[in-house]
């Protein structure tokens, strides 16, 4: 007869309780690891806690310098309800609040090139460094001096062309944390690459689910059985050692696979790669949510921007060599790359949305992890250190 005496824990929305649950799960042995508790993906209180401790307290990826190659170039993004603008001015790259100092409308959205940034509400105008240089009809405002006004600057660092930002003045340098990756990023010439395309889409699930799925190939045989599994069988994947700021999953091509299954028609492979390099795609997570696909002819770099506990914006940036971007017909190549990625994206969106629904069950509990999911354990360990 079934045992009906087992107590079922109800879903909770108390941050301190969830934090304690997560910390009690800690294990130094990956073979004994399990997922975070379902409440960590469904609690408003815990979501607010991790946004403060992780997204405001650590480094997050903002973009690549190839998005702003010329003076006047800018792009925008929202991180933890902070509208930001990244510009290239005469003095270099700046990251600033995009909230007007007047009545808080974002002064600019999207991306482009401008000599100055003009708020669409009342035409208050800022230079590319954030200095307030134009305030129409403010001459009767007593003791108002626009020369003393400047958009708040956001701390940033550029690591091999990648722009990282943080709202903390205490966290260590991201360049120092990622120093062991210098050789790998040099190998992939990350600072020298061009932007092929960007792609933003909504994910109706918690940001951690998106990170976890990207960083393991175990799901290939079920979710991607007609797309990725043929060329990159999940059973062949293996997990590298994690570092102080990252973890790696290696995704080899099948034994008798052709290089055409790895390379993209119309792109020129990067130079200096071994035969093994040419037959493998590496997946990297730079904590907390910068996802990098390292291909021998391109890089895919994504940032997950949480909106709430059940909604995330996926911001994807694809980079290629300057030789590739200079090829005749490159615009068509980029469009084809973008289109071909959508089927895999749709497969992951469907399964993660289903996973999110299942995690709301009061019968849901932490699940055991296998050796192909060690990166999921690595992310959980990172979260434990931050919360």
TrEMBL record:
UniProtKB keywords: 2Fe-2S, Iron, Iron-sulfur, Metal-binding, Oxidoreductase
Gene3D superfamilies according to UniProt: Naphthalene 1,2-dioxygenase Alpha Subunit, Chain A, domain 1, Rieske [2Fe-2S] iron-sulphur domain
The protein's required cofactors: Fe cation
Pfam families, alphabetized: Rieske, Ring_hydroxyl_A
Superkingdom of the source species: Bacteria
Domain Rieske: 59-165
PROSITE patterns: RIESKE
TM region(s), chain numbering: none
An example Gene Ontology molecular-function term: 2 iron, 2 sulfur cluster binding
Name the UniProt record assigns to this protein: Rieske 2Fe-2S domain-containing protein
Organism, as annotated: Acerihabitans arboris
């Amino acid at each position: 007869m079934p045992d009906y005496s087992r107590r079922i824990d109800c879903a909770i929305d108390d941050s301190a309780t969830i934090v304690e649950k997560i910390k009690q799960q800690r294990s130094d042995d990956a073979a004994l690891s399990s997922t975070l508790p379902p409440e960590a993906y469904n609690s408003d209180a815990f979501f607010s806690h991790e946004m403060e401790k992780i997204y405001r307290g650590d480094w997050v990826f903002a973009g690549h310098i190839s998005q702003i190659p010329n003076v006047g170039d800018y792009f925008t993004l929202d991180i933890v309800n902070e509208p930001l603008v990244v510009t290239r001015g005469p003095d270099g790259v700046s990251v600033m609040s995009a909230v007007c100092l007047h009545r808080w409308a974002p002064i600019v959205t999207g991306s482009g090139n401008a000599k100055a940034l003009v708020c669409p509400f009342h035409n208050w105008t800022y230079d590319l460094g954030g200095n307030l240089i134009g305030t129409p009809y403010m001459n009767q405002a007593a003791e108002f001096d626009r020369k003393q006004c400047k958009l708040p600057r956001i701390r940033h660092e550029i690591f091999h062309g990648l722009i990282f930002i943080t709202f903390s003045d205490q966290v260590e340098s991201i360049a120092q944390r990622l120093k062991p990756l210098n050789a790998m990023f040099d190998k992939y010439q990350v600072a020298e690459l061009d932007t092929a395309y960007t792609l933003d889409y909504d994910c109706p699930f918690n940001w951690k689910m998106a990170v976890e799925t990207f960083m393991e190939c175990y799901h290939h045989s079920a979710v991607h059985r007609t797309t990725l599994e043929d060329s990159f069988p999940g059973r062949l994947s293996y997990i590298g050692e994690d570092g102080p700021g990252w973890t790696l999953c290696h995704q080899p091509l099948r034994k008798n696979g052709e290089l055409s299954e790895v390379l993209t028609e119309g792109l020129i492979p990067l130079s200096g790669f071994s035969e093994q390099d040419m037959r493998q795609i590496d997946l990297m997570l730079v904590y907390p949510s910068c996802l990098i696909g390292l291909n021998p002819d391109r890089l895919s770099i994504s940032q997950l921007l949480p909106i709430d506990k059940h909604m995330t914006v996926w911001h994807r940036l694809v980079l290629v060599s300057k030789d590739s971007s200079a090829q005749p017909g490159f615009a068509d190549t980029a469009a084809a790359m973008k289109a071909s990625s959508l089927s895999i994206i749709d497969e992951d969106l469907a399964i993660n949305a289903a996973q999110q629904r299942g995690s709301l069950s009061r019968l849901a509990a932490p699940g055991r992890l296998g050796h192909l999911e060690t990166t999921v354990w690595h992310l959980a360990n990172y979260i434990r250190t931050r919360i």
